[in-house]
């Protein structure tokens, strides 16, 4: 069963999907959206769900370093609820602390330009979130 990983930001959503066996995560795209209107991402999310036959969405939960859930965490929880209601998906919230920083470090080590990093960082963060989840369940 394929799973989808999401790194939900205010302006973009990074998307990754797993292979059929749930061993690896691949970043597939970054969706531009308006967080104030969830429907702005619905068409692209629906296409991904159908194309990859997604049953579970692993949504990054940005906790504060002390483990509490702040404003960004609340926004991710609300979006996960929207996914459940709109697409009948099961959702799993996954601690994503430092994921974007890890993605940035990987891209810097690959000597990728700032302009190129900006285009791929969100889908790479989604892949790291999903891969972390997959690794914990293997």
Automatic annotation (TrEMBL):
CDD domains: YqgF
GO terms for cellular component: cytosol
Pfam families xref list: RuvX
Protein's UniProt keywords contain Hydrolase: yes
Enzyme class of the recorded protein, top EC level: hydrolase
EC numbers: 3.1.-.-
Any one GO MF annotation of this record: nuclease activity
UniProt domain YqgF/RNase H-like: residue ranges: 1-103
SUPFAM superfamilies reported in the protein's UniProt record: Ribonuclease H-like (SSF53098)
Gene3D superfamilies (UniProt xref): YqgF/RNase H-like domain
Superkingdom of this protein's organism: Bacteria
Alphabetical list of InterPro entries matching this protein: RNaseH-like_sf (IPR012337), YqgF (IPR005227), YqgF/RNaseH-like_dom (IPR006641), YqgF/RNaseH-like_dom_sf (IPR037027)
UniProt KW keywords: Cytoplasm, Hydrolase, Nuclease, Ribosome biogenesis
PANTHER family in UniProt: POLYNUCLEOTIDYL TRANSFERASE, RIBONUCLEASE H-LIKE SUPERFAMILY PROTEIN
Protein role: Could be a nuclease involved in processing of the 5'-end of pre-16S rRNA.
NCBIfam families: RNAse_H_YqgF
Record-stated family: Belongs to the YqgF HJR family.
Stated name of the protein: Putative pre-16S rRNA nuclease
């Amino acid at each position: 069963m394929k799973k989808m990983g999401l790194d939900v930001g205010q302006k973009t959503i990074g998307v990754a999907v797993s292979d059929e066996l749930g061993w690896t995560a691949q970043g597939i795209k970054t969706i531009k959206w308006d967080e104030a209107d969830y429907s702005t991402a619905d068409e692209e999310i629906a296409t991904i769900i159908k194309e990859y036959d997604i049953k579970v969405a692993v949504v990054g939960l940005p906790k504060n370093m002390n483990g509490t859930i702040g404003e960004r965490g609340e926004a991710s929880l609300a979006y996960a609820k929207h996914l459940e209601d709109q697409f009948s998906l099961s959702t799993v919230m996954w601690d994503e602390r430092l994921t974007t920083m890890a993605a940035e470090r990987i891209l810097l080590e690959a000597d990728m330009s700032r302009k190129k990093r900006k285009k791929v960082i969100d889908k790479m963060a989604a892949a790291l979130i999903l891969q972390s989840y997959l690794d914990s369940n293997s």
